[in-house]
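Provenance

Sequences were taken from public entries as deposited. Structures were produced by running a predictor on each sequence independently, with no templates supplied. The record for Family 1 glycosylhydrolase from Neobacillus driksii is shown for reference.
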Amino acid sequence: MGFNFPPEFLWGSTTAAYQVEGNNINSDFWAEEHAEGSPYKDKSGDTIDHYRLYKEDIALMASLGLNSYRFSIEWSRIEPEPGYYSRSAIAHYRDVLETCYQYGLTPVVAMHHFSSPKWLMRLGGWASPEVPERFAKYCEVVFKEIGHLIPYVLTMNEINLPVMLREIFSKIGFIAPVGIARDAWEAPKWRESAAKLCGTTIENYFTFHMISDEASINILKESHRKARKAIKQIQSNTKVGLSMALSDIQSIPGGEEIAEKKWHSYFRQYLDMVEEDDFFGLQNYTREVYGPEGQVKPEEGAELTLMGYEFYPEALGNVIRKVSKDLSIPIMITEHGIATENDERRVEFIRRALEGVQACLDEGVDVRGYLHWTTFDNFEWQSGYSMKFGLIEVDRSTQERKVKGSANFLGSIAKVNTLLTK
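Predicted structure for Family 1 glycosylhydrolase:
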């Protein structure tokens, strides 16, 4: 026996341009990598060379049985200098989109996945009041050229992550989803060097991951609204949303009030951003448990992932239910994954999480797709290449791809649109 998912359910995997394309030299993250005293364990370099190998990679995803691919467009490639738009970069992403259709994959595109052009830092980064107009203009240029090929778009990825980073690091040495170490987050010296490489000073240097105060959050909200409006004016049929990173916030006796404040900080304070969106991108990896003294560490002996998260696939279903209470739009799982060397645990993680998705669908929650993070073992920001999130292994000395059992497992579910019972 098995559970049949909705007929148009999207089954896919996810990448981020900076993490897979390679040599995004005009990005602020490139400056951070190469800054003096940088905490990055590795240099991204060619990463997995997806910018060159995307056709083979998309064909491989399709061969597994997946029917969707979420990827991001790199702003610093499209607009390497303010007001200058690269025709060749636009042509590249047009071909990526057309290749998706050639192989039967529905594209889900993120216009921004953490990395920004270096030149934005010269204007004051994401604290600059110029950002909303400039980001909307970038989206407008892209959509005028290739928007007809984009059925689903996230303006930005994990808009709430900066607040999570700030709060997590102010309490414990927890490794955040983006892989930024606590000491690196708190140490300003390497950021001064990064600012210099961006052609500015530390006073102007304000990356996406620093959007955690009221003023910058308001700029973020306005950026999303203006981008959504620009996109809709050009392609009214494109479904527009954003994504949030949401742990399953739980409490033990005495921790209820703290947990409720966390949920407001991580999710509810952003609800006014999504009021006119078409769908919501939900991203989940683990749970957070709070007691009267704050966050409670996992029990001794609990299974932890390479990132230090508790292995808790039931979190996904729990979070879907929580967000559905405040949303009247469809939910798409735009990231969900696990960093592990043991691929059998990844299979178990996916299976148990999908049982939770199945239960939510049974309860009437409108879930439109499951996009796994990530397609390939890739460059995990400051953690470098040590974190194995991929469904597909990559030998970076040869760029050879090797399909893991978890990729075949997810693909087998996608092919029949059914989660088979054990």
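The longest helix spans residues 214-234.
DSSP finds 15 helices and 16 strands in the chain.
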